[in-house]
Specification:
Number of helices: 8
Radius of gyration: 26 Å
Distance between the termini: 81 Å
Shape: elongated
Order of helices and strands: HHHHEHHEHEEEEH
Largest sheet: 6 strands, antiparallel
Oligomer: single chain
């Protein structure tokens, strides 16, 4: 009885399919890193490790897919070429995203407490109690780094009385889908929490309105609960709030 041997076409697809499987693995690691943390399937540190692993695997798969495509071109195996190129694209994506995020992280200061008032940042009361350890400001070191990175973030003078400014600030916070934790109109203070999209980090915000005659002074503070660097998230959040509350300010 004649022994059956694998076809040349089937053998030619082994390397392209392996490259595609590795690329898919890297892509899934990257894609699930944040949502898994949001669903409490693992902590954010595991999510960060998954992103790093996706980058390394993605690079290796890109090299493998490139080699596979060269082999397939030489054999004129068009299905192998297609699978190899598809694997290459997915692998490069899985590699490029972590590299880009790492580059972004390196370009921002290693701080996560941003305020428009550096000498007297808005204080947390309700949120400070909920966090247990409280919310302490890092002082001159944090202020110096912020001034260098975000010199545009300063106290805003509003051409409206404090009562009207407070109502507008509260409306703006809700329009931005922040969870309002505390309202203290007598003190001109609003405390809120925002959740980041990818990892679901909880960041806290304090808004303070101070009367200044027929005008008012607006200060905003945004603080992350975990991590050292916020990759610019808190500054972007404050800018988004100011842009919405005071059109034309930024």
């Amino acid at each position: 009885m004649e022994e059956k041997r694998p076809s040349a076409a089937g053998t030619s697809l082994v390397l392209p399919l392996f490259a595609a499987a590795c690329a898919a693995c890297a892509f899934l690691l990257l894609l699930s890193s944040g949502p898994g943390a949001r669903l409490n399937l693992w902590n954010f540190r595991t999510g960060f490790a998954m992103i790093k692993a996706a980058g390394y695997i993605g690079f290796g798969c890109a090299v493998l897919a490139l080699a596979s495509s060269v082999v397939s071109v030489r054999r004129r195996h068009f299905k192998g070429i297609f699978i190899s190129l598809l694997a290459l694209i997915v692998a490069l994506f899985a590699f490029a995203v972590p590299v880009y995020w790492n580059f972004q992280a390196q370009s921002y200061p290693r701080i996560h407490d941003i305020s428009t008032d550096l000498s007297n940042p808005p204080h947390f009361v309700a949120i400070s109690s909920a966090r247990g350890a409280g919310v302490r400001y890092g002082g001159i070191d944090v202020a110096t780094q912020q001034l260098k990175a975000y010199p545009d973030l300063k106290t805003v003078v509003l051409s409206m009385p404090a009562g009207e400014a407070y109502k507008r600030a509260l409306l703006t916070a809700r329009e931005l889908k922040w969870t309002v934790v505390a309202e203290r109109p007598a003190e001109g203070v609003i405390e809120a929490t925002d959740t980041t999209r990818w990892f679901g980090f909880k960041d806290d915000i304090a808004i303070r309105i101070v009367p200044a005659g027929d005008r008012s002074l607006l200060d905003v503070r945004s603080v992350s609960r975990v991590g050292i660097s916020d990759v610019g998230t808190n500054a972007k959040r404050i800018r988004a709030f100011l842009a919405k509350m005071v059109p034309g300010h930024i």
